[in-house]
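Sequence only, no structure available. Ideas?
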Amino acid sequence: MATTLNLCFAIIGESQTTQPFMRDVGRTLDTEELKNTIYEFKKPLFKNVKDASSLVLYRTNVPSSKYKSDKEFSEDIVKSLEPMAGMISTYFSDGAEENKIHIIVKRPRELKRRLDDDDFERPLKHFKASSIVHREARRYVYYADQTESNKPLIKSIQRGEFVRVYGARASGKSSRIVDAMKTLTAKGFECIYVDLQYFDVKIFWSVLSQRLQVYGPENFSDSCGFQSAFSVGSKIWKRPVVIFFDEFDVLRMESWNEVRKSILRTFRALKNDPSRESNNPTHVIHSIVSIGTYAILQLNLTGEELSPFNPIDDFQNTSLSLDQVRELYLQFAKDRDIVIEECVMEDIFIKTNGHAGLVNVCGVAVEECLPAQANSERVNINDWSSIQNTLISRMKQYRTFQKLVADLTGKDEKRMAALTLYRNMFLGSTTEIDVPVHSPRERQFAEHLTALGVLCSGPLHKFSVASPLMDSLIRRIVIPTAFPNAPKTRPLMRSDDSLDILGTIKSALLFFDKDLIERARRVSYKTASSPIRVGRHTGQRVPRESVYDSELLRILANWLTSLDGYQVIGQYHIGGVYCDIVIRQGGDTVALELVVTEIPQVIQAHIDKIVNYKELVRAKEGWVIHFTKEDNYLKNRPVWPAQEMLDNDISIIHIWHNHDFTQVRLSAWGKDSHGNVVQACDEHII
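Reply:
I predicted one. C-alpha cells follow.
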C-alpha cells in the first residue's frame, strides 16, 4: 500500500473560494498535521489566519467537474458534513478516487460566524455510525459520555498496568479511549494514540517511528530504538507516557507472526523492567493500552514468551445502558421538537442490546425516515416498525458490517465451520439465552464469532447472540450468501403471472439442508407440547421455528431475488410484531407465517395472525406454513382454515418430515387471490 495519498483540496471562507489544487500527503498524518501541511503550502491564502489549528477540514467526494468556485456552492456542501478528526487514513481506507474533491478547507472567519450564537443557532446534531467520535466533533453528533464508566480503566493505567480494552466492532471502544486520554492528560500524563491499521508490517518499527514523529521522539527502526526513544535520557519527555495502540487485533494475522513476537516481547521487557518500581526508572512509558475486538484476548505467545497483558487488568467495553440510549434519543427528539414514544426507545435498546454502532444505525434510520412518516412530530411503534424494515440494508452501507459479512462468508474451513456453528446452535435465539459450548474445537469457532462481534461470551464457556439486529443480519444476508444452494429454474407461475406459492414451497423443500434439520433436534430445538407424539413418545425435541424460517428464507432469497422485481424480506415488522417472510413482486405481496410442530389451538392462533398481517402489509394472499414431525399428522387431524378465512384468501400448508428430512410429505388447503382452490393431500415430496 502506498505511503502517500494524492488528494485534491479546495479552500473556502473569508473571501472568494480558490480553485482546487492537488497535494501529496502522508497516509500516516493526523488531521492537525494535515492542517499544518496545507497552511504552509498555501500560506498566502491564510494571511488573516492566526495559525493552522483554526482551519476546519471536511471530507467530501464532489466530482471535480461539478465543483464551482463560489461560496454558496461550497457552503451547501459542508453544511451536512462533520469536521474531520483523527488519522487521515481512516477517511481514505480504500484510497482516493480520481477526479474528485477530497477535502474542503474552511477558513476561520466564516467558521467563527457559524459558531456565533448571536447570529446562528448551534449546529443540529446527528447520529453517526461506525466512526471514532473525537471530542472536537461531539458538538455535531450524539454521543454517550463514558467518563464515569472509564474510572476502573483510569485506575489501572494510573497504577502502571498494561491493559487490554476489548469489545465488539463499532461498539465505541476508540471513542471511549478519547475520553480516557482527556482524563489522563488532566492528571499529568502524556497520551499517545497509534492506529495499527494500514501499517507496512515488513518495516513495522520504522512506520511506528513515523507515526510518533508528531510527539517528538528520535527516529528508530527496531524495537531497541523504540525503547531508547522513550528512555529517561531523552530530553523531550516531561511527563509519564501512556501509549494507546488501536486495532491491536491485526497482530493475529498470519503476516504479523514475527512482528507480533517482537512487539509483545518488547512490551513485556518494558513492563518487567525492575527500575519501574524504583525512584530512578530507565524509561518514561508508564502504561501501554491495546484496543481491539475480543480477538486481542487470544494474543498470548506460546513457548517461553508470555503476553505483557495480565487478564486481571482487562477492560471490557460495555454496551450502552437503556438509560443512555433513552437520553440520546430524548436529545434527538428535543432538538427536532418531536416526541419519540418510550416503547420505541426501549425496542431500539432491545434490538441493539446497547451496541453503540447499532444504536447509531437506528438513529440514522429514524432521522432519514422522519420526513416520510405520516405524523413527523411523533415517532410511534408503527413508524418505528416501518423504519426497522430498512435497517439491514442500512447496515450493509457501513464498512464495519461489510467486513463482517465478508469475514463470515469466506470459503476457508474456519469461516465455514464458525458460521455452521452459529447456524446450528444460535440462529434465532435471544441475548438472554446462554448456550454452553463444550467441545474445544467448537469453542474455538465460538470465540472467533465473539471476536467478530456476532456472539457475546460469558462464564463457563457459555455464549449468546450479540443482539437481535445482528442475528437478523446473519439470517437475511450472511446465510443466503454463504449457502447459495437454491433452484435454478423459474418458479411455477399462475395464468396472471403471479407466483404459485404452493408450487414454490414444494420446490424449495427439495433444497432444505438435511444435515441442518437432523442436527437441530440436538442443538437447536424446542420440546413438542403434550400430547404431541414424535416417534411414539411425548415431550420429544424437535427443530425450533428459526431453523425452518432461516432455511426457507435462504432458499427463497437466493432463488426469487435473482429474478426481476422480486423482494424477499425476513422478519417484516408491522407495529409491535413481525411477519416471518414477505414476498413482493411489483404490486403483488404475499405474507408467510411459520409454525412448528404444534397443537391445534396454536396453529389456529397463527391462522388468526396471518389475517392481521395480510391486512397490515396489504398482501393479496396470506399463507400459514406448518412444519411438523408429529406421528401420522397428515392422516389424523390437520387444522384447516374456516370458510371465512378461505374467503379472505388465507391458505395453509402442513409439511410432515422424518428426523433427517429424507422423507417429506405435504397437505394444503386454501384459496388464492383469484378465488381458485389450492389443495394437496398427503403428497409425496421427498
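The two ends are 53 Å apart (CA to CA).
Hope that gets you unstuck.
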